[in-house]
């Protein structure tokens, strides 16, 4: 009996050494979760039970459980290194074979898919052609690495103040090259269908008490006729409170809409040949098919210096991918050289009712099992899911000092059980030597 007891102790101590050694060997493995050997005692049983004072029959390795406590977050500054602070696992797919991991080594392959260091594709919500997230449809995440197509300007919104103390210019007629013929001016870049930038300039000329004329040129030319420098004009009227009177807007060049906005519907994008004097002609691109909406309804006329408090337009030129940003909810933003950003997708996480029931399959990954239950899929920071940290990795949760102490304990256990076998051998030899 003592031989079997000692042998079971040796096996248990050896298993403990193996588990501890595996923990130590993976102390530097990102996303690794340490294991713990769990033992239980063994008693010989018979049909009628074990009796009131049974002798033990040794020890049994009942389970090797993994401890999924949080590892330290180590910042790497690599945009696609990802760490989970809290519950959840990254979902990866290897040709449809789904696995779960906490190791956040990710990058892109030659097709733009986000993959880990084994080539498994990260899963998440993709976007449609309009950049809208397709929530609920989990698929391979892909980064669009091609150039971003240009967008023609469709609207301009601006707010400015005209100085009510200005006087009517004495020099006439209006000449954009002569500042004495107008009171103030401002400009904004707009874009045609090919992403070419053009400068839209507005010149404000006071014509009387509370009345102004806004003269508009694009690249210094007439918007509809590049061979002409005659501006498009709009008559502006302000009320006694200094607010723009939207009902008094008047123009033969712009379309005055019912809501008080203006529409430029016949712009012909032009280009100069660079000669002296330059010759201007259409550049082959087009303006937005629906025209350009100009919203300046919040503009005022007060007794203060001319100032533009806000101005924006929605067009842009073509852009190259310059970087990625991932927020703590897993949304992936691509930044382009034209100053634009675009949502590329959203990373999803999986959680389980019993994470210790997951089956480890190596490569710091686990797969679902009957004991783990079905995965609950969600985005970071939703429900019980943890937050995502980009530019960082989760370190192994192995505490080396604890593991080294475990090594000493397992070694002593092994030696003690070997001593049990040695002692039983000596006793047996004594019995054999009886005469």
Automatic annotation (TrEMBL):
The keyword Cytoplasm does not apply. Residues 4-33 form the Flagellar basal body rod protein N-terminal domain. Residues 389-434 form the Flagellar basal-body/hook protein C-terminal domain. Residues 161-316 form the Flagellar hook protein FlgE D2 domain. InterPro entries: Falgellar_hook_FlgE_sf, Flag_bb_rod_N, Flagellar_FlgE/F/G, Flg_bb/hook_C_dom, FlgE/F/G-like, FlgE_D2, LlgE_F_G-like_D1. Keywords: Bacterial flagellum, Cell projection, Cilium, Flagellum. It is found in: Bacterial flagellum basal body. GO terms for biological process: bacterial-type flagellum-dependent swarming motility. GO terms for cellular component: bacterial-type flagellum basal body; bacterial-type flagellum hook; cytosol. Residues 83-135 form the Flagellar hook protein FlgE/F/G-like D1 domain. It holds the Pfam family Flg_bbr_C. Its main location: other. Belongs to the flagella basal body rod proteins family. A flexible structure which links the flagellar filament to the drive apparatus in the basal body. This is Flagellar hook protein FlgE. It comes from Pseudomonas indica.
């Amino acid at each position: 009996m003592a031989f079997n007891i000692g042998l079971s102790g040796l096996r248990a101590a050896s298993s403990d050494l193996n588990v501890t050694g595996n923990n130590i060997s993976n102390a530097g493995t990102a996303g690794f979760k340490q294991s713990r050997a769990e033992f239980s005692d063994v008693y010989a049983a018979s049909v009628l039970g074990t009796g009131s004072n049974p002798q033990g029959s040794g020890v049994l390795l009942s389970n090797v459980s993994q401890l999924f406590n949080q590892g330290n977050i180590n910042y790497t500054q690599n945009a696609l290194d990802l760490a989970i602070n809290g519950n959840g696992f990254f979902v990866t797919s290897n040709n449809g074979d789904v696995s779960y991991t906490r190791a956040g080594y990710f990058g892109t392959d030659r097709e733009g898919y986000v993959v880990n260091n084994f080539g498994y594709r990260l899963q998440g919500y993709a976007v449609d052609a309009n950049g809208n997230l397709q929530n609920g449809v989990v698929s391979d995440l892909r980064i669009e690495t091609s150039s971003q197509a240009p967008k023609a300007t469709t609207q301009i919104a601006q707010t400015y103040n005209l100085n009510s103390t200005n006087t009517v210019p004495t020099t006439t007629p209006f000449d954009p090259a002569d500042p004495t013929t107008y009171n103030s001016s401002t400009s904004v870049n707009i874009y045609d269908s090919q992403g070419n930038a053009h400068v839209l300039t507005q010149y404000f000329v006071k014509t009387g008490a509370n009345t102004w004329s806004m003269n508009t040129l694009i690249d210094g030319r007439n918007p509809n006729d590049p061979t002409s420098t005659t501006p498009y004009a709009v008559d502006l009227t302000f009320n006694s409170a200094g607010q723009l009177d939207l009902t008094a807007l008047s123009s033969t060049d712009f379309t005055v809409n019912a809501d008080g906005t203006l529409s430029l519907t016949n712009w012909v994008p032009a280009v100069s040949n660079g000669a002296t004097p330059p010759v201007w002609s259409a550049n082959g691109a087009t303006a937005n098919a629906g025209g350009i909406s100009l919203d300046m309804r919040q503009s005022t006329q007060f007794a203060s210096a001319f100032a533009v408090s806000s101005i924006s337009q929605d067009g842009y030129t073509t852009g190259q991918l310059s970087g990625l940003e991932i927020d703590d909810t897993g949304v992936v933003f691509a930044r382009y050289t034209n100053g634009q950003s675009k949502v590329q997708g959203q990373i999803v996480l999986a959680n389980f009712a019993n994470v210790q029931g997951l089956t480890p399959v190596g490569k710091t990954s686990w797969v679902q099992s009957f004991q783990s239950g079905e995965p609950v899929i969600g985005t970071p920071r939703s429900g019980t899911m943890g937050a995502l940290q980009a530019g960082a990795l989760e370190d192994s949760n192995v505490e080396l000092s604890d593991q080294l102490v475990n090594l000493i304990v397992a070694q002593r256990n092994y030696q003690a059980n070997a001593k049990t076998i040695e002692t039983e051998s000596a006793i047996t030899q004594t019995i054999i030597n009886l005469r």
